[in-house]
Structure formats: structure tokens, C-alpha cells
Amino acid sequence: MRPLRFSYKHISARLDSMRLRYSLLPAALAVFPPPAMGWTQFSITARHSSSLASVVSVNALKATVDTLDEVVPALMQKDETPIARGTVVANFPGGFAAIKLDDGDDEAKLTAPEVIDLTNSAAAVAAAKAAASESGSSYGDLQGKRVQFSHGSSGVVVCHRPPIAFVLAADETSAEHMENAQIFRDMTNVSVFDKACIVDCFGKAIDSAVKQGSMERPIFAPIPQVKDIALINSPMLTGTTMIDSLAPIGRGQNMLFVTSDRESAQGYAMDLMRTQLRNGGSTKCVYAITDGQENILQQLEKHGIADKVTVIVPNSRGGKSETAQAAEAVTMAATACAIGEAFALEEGAHSLVIIDTIDQHKKLWDATTRTLVDVFGLEAVVEGDRNGGASSEMRSFYSSLIQRSAQYKASRGGGSVTLLLLTTVPEPSVDENTVYDESLFEGSPAKILERINLLTKRGIPLTAANLRKIDIPIPSTAEGARRFALQHVDDLISMSDGQIWMDDRLKGKQEPPLDPQRSVTRIGIGADTDSRADAPALRRVVEGLRLDLSQAANMDGAEATAASKKQIQRQQSLILAMYQKPGSGGRRLSESCVALLAAYNGFLNDSIENGAVSGSTAGLQLMEDLLRYVGTKEAKCMDEIDQSMDLSAESRDKLAKAIESFFDK
């Protein structure tokens, strides 16, 4: 028989609404095949969202049922056979528990079901149930699985570190009631609402008349498969010229936003959403805020986009421990992704998911490590985790979130999920000019001591600034903690598509204080690959921008020559052109092009010499007036750039002439 591949979109809405379990999907397709295929003999291949793979060979006769409604109620019954059982070994106030899984012979396990011959709907239902309950080898990764506690409350596995599953209860559960638990095959789902609203980590609407969404998606859905994703080929404009030029975000990418100033980062995230929603933009925005949600909710109201952004907030449970808060934050991040995925896969929409912040993931991981040590001893934990590093297990934990971004192929709806992940690092704790005594470095590795001796012999002071330049750790407890945090960020970077890095040393010199050396976007490239994350219009203007900024920065303190003065002048013009405060609303693509053309063509030089520098009132007013003037004079040209995202030679000439006429006034 010839195996056929087909989409079951025509029944997916019905199946989702009735919460049909994935393990019963082959039976549903067997008794209700797509009408276009007729009722001839065929083969069905269905891949479960879990690790199961089922091949159902069917000699189909005409079904005795006329509608899907007659077969789904029988199929939708939950399979209540647990795949794992365990005992609670640690409780954390706030409904979070560690469950040690049993390893006895009574443990139910999974395998791929055998090939079954089905000829009618009754047999289909019976066979699917039998296959789901009698299979067995290993339950695999349990993250996202449904959990039932012995006292009746339910939950979800947030993290699985064999042989312990860490579970967050879905309702307010006191620690003394959490004793035993069973884990089931099906995933815990989140209900997705058509309209933007405020929900908790389990998707329950807060202060909303609507309590059930029209779509469902597993909270901890698996990351997209390679066969389902397409190349990154269009930008998700942030409205911040410096970011769009130096670290552009492509639709379907994940991007880290590294900063010590969370409030500022939130402002740029707000500008990103406002840019995507400008002029009726159709991007589905989802924002997970792990704490301090009142500020974000107020900002959404202030900017008039509260009814266009789905916000995931912490629940109102009292007395939550830090570990329970961290587990809730991890679940919130997963729920935000699930909501974005539902829009992308079910509606073919482009989704923007912002996680503010992922710092709690590290707190949860460290808490699970401590639990493993408490229960099994230090030797049960791999060396990387003992030292606070990134083991392969930890990388897998983070990747289950970071890698959920995707640009889906047309066959999967053509939608996308773009992830912006905020993470914070401590501010430098010492003054850059603080001088350290050589004796403080006693006991350091030989290479460090060699560098210290070399600096001392040459009479170079051991200041914090000089030590950082040659990567020598600053001898202070606070700096040690910061260094550890930076190492963790490096681990995250290795899993991501890029990072937007804000440098404290650039504060007061430029806005945003983006480090052009550490802020990059990574995309797949090759001889047969046409993949870009930036807008073609900006690409035609800013080629060489990173090099220009780097060369000027390296000239700090260098001998003043005509060439160095020219380089520094260009840098000052570019910094002025790209100056934007967080929360200012974001620019149109055409406005970013105008600002950068003005800088590169030297139109800003005289103004800078007259005091209109980056960050000054005169500088801000100059750029505001310039953009308004050109936007009015060349409105049609500006609209064409925004719509096509490209800059033709003709449009470039028109903008240059308009800029020149502004400064000639």
C-alpha cells in the first residue's frame, strides 16, 4: 500500500475544542478520513507530540457514522493509566513539590504501538485505547505531563531530572496534602483566547467574562522540528534604529536582551510591541511578566495597546516560596510560547513573545540541584551543576524554551513565533578608577600573576578598567558574583540566535547603550541559503556601521590627526542619529533610514559642532524636526519604504534632497 501524507486541518478545530488526546489521534483519522481521499484502502502515518510513533494500517469500509461528533466523545476520554508514580520528597510553599519516581515493576511505560488492522469505528476506539495503555519501555522526559496528586489536585511537570519530577500544582495546595502523585501520558494544555487578555501561568483568565478559549496548546510543547520550519527571511522591526541596524531580529528568531537596567529594557520591549502594532499591525503580542506586573499593565494602558497584548502574570497565591515563584515563572514563559504557537499554527499569524525575565529559570535550576543533593547526595549531581556551570542537562532545560521560536513553512500555516528573552546581569560594583594592591592577587593562577607582574613592572596602575581590558578578575566578592552571572549569559548565548547587549560603560554616551561588538544576530548561511534578518532598506544605508563605531571607539586617547578627527566626527553623527530613549514609541523604518542618511552624508556635523550632540535637548529637537520635515515633504516616498522595506536609488536621492533642503532652511 502507498503511504499518504495529509493534513487534518479540516478536523483540527473540532479535535482541539474537545481536547482529544494525541494518543487517540490515529483512531480518529482511521474512522474519519479526509473526504477528498474517498473510502478506498490507504495507509495513515501519524506522529504523536510525545515520543510515540504509531503506524495504523486500515482496510477501511464506509463508516457507519455521519459526523465526527459521533466518534469523538468516545475517543476523547482521558486515559487514566499513569505512566509514572512517585512520592513527594520535598515541598515548597506555594504549590511546588519534588516527586521521587518509583522504579518498581508496577510502573507503566510507553512504546510505539504495534500495527493494528481496523475495519470499523468500535475497533478503532478499542485498539487505540489498548495501544495507549498496554505499551511499555521508558516514560522519557516528563516535562509538561499532567500530574494528579493523591488528594485530588492536579499539576504539571515543570522540570524532570531523573529520578525526580518537579511539579507545580494548578490550584492552591498546602504542603501537607502533597504526599503521592501519578503522572499521565497527556500533556497539560493552556486555553488560548482569540482576544488579548490577562491570564495566569495555566492560562486562566483574570477579570475576564470569557473563561474558555477557542484553541488549546500544550504548555510545554516540544520545540519545532526542522521539517516544519523555513528560513528566516524577514525582519521584525523593533523601532529602535540602533537595534534594527546592528542586531536586527528576524521573524521566527529568538533573541536575548542582556542588561543591568531592567526598566530600560522594558521600555525598548514596549517600543517593539508598539512598532509591530502601529497602523493596525496584525502581529499577536504576548508578554510574560514574572514580577512587577503593575508597571507593565500601566504602560500598556498609557500607550493604548492594552487590548492588543496578551499578558501572563503571577497568580494571587499568598506565601509563595522563592522556589515556587521560580517554578511559576518558568511555567509562565512556557505558557506565553504556547499561546504564540497557537496563533502561528492555527491562524498562520506572526507572534511576538516577550519573556520578562528568564532570570528565574536559573533560580529554579539551582533549587532542583539542591534538592537532588539533599535526597541523593552530592555524587548524584554532575560536576557541572555542582559548580554552578552548564551541564548538558541544564542546556536541554533552557533549550526547551529558547528553541521554541520558529518561522513555520507554508504547509504549517506560514506563521512565526519570535522570542525576546530579557535577562539581567549585576551592575559593576566598583569604580573603574579604583586601584588594587598587588597582594590581593596572591593565590591566583600563574597566568594571572604573570600579567599582574607585567603591569606592575611597566608602572601601569591596577585599576578596575585596566584589569577588565586584559580579562583579569577584579578581587571583590560582588565582582565575583557578576563574573559568574556573565558566564551564565555566555552559556545562554551559545543556545540563542543572537543577543542585544547593553553595556553600562556606554551609559551617558549613547542611548541605547548597545555594545556593537557583543550585539549580533546569527542566521543560517550557505551557498544555497538566502536568509536575512535585517530590512533591505537599512542594509543599503548602514553597511560598515559596526566597523565605523568600533574604529572610532579604538581612537579614544589616540593622537589627533585629520583621519581620526573625521572618524570621531562620523561616530558622533551616528550616535546622534540613533539616539532614542526607551519607551519613546519607536521609529518607522523610513525614519531610521532618514536619520542614518543624514549622519552618513555629513548633514549633522555642523549641528554637532554647535552643541546639538547626542542626548542634549538641542540634539533631540534637531532629530525630531528633521524626521517631521522629511516625513511631510516626502510622505509618499516614506510610505513606499515602510511597505516594501527596501530603499531604491530613486527613493534614496529624494530623501537626500529633502534632508539637504531641511538644513538649508
Number of domains: 4
Structural class comes to alpha/beta
Q: Could you say what the CATH architecture of the largest domain is?
A: 3-Layer(aba) Sandwich
Average per-residue pLDDT, rounded, comes to 81
Radius of gyration, whole Å? 28 Å
Helical proportion, percent range: 25-40%
Distance between the termini: 78 Å
Please describe what this structure looks like.
With 665 residues, this protein is α/β, with parallel strands linked by helices. The chain has 4 domains: 3-187, Thrombin, subunit H (Beta Barrel); 190-428 and 478-524, Rossmann fold (3-Layer(aba) Sandwich); 438-475, no CATH class; 537-664, Up-down Bundle (Lysin), CATH 1.20.150.20. The strands form 4 sheets. Strands 12, 14, 15, 16, 17, 18, 19, 20 and 21 form a 9-stranded mixed β-sheet that branches. Helix 2 (25-31) packs antiparallel against helix 4, helix 16 packs across helix 17 and helix 17 runs antiparallel to helix 18 (589-600). It is globular.
Which helices and strands occur, and which strands form pairs?
Elements (H helix, E strand, L loop, with lengths): L2 E2 L4 H9 L7 H7 L10 E6 L5 E6 L13 H4 L8 E9 L3 E6 L15 E2 L2 H14 L10 E5 L4 E8 L2 E6 L10 E8 L1 E4 L5 E2 L15 E4 L22 H6 L7 E6 L2 H16 L6 E6 L3 H10 L6 E4 L9 H26 L2 E7 L2 H18 L6 H4 L5 H11 L3 E2 L8 E9 L21 H12 L6 H6 L7 H17 L4 E4 L18 E2 L14 H7 L2 H10 L7 H16 L11 H12 L4 H5 L7 H17 L1 H10 L4 H16 L1
Parallel strand pairs: 1-2, 3-6, 12-16, 14-19, 14-20, 15-16, 15-17, 17-19
Antiparallel strand pairs: 2-3, 4-5, 4-10, 5-9, 7-8, 7-10, 8-9, 11-13, 18-19, 20-21
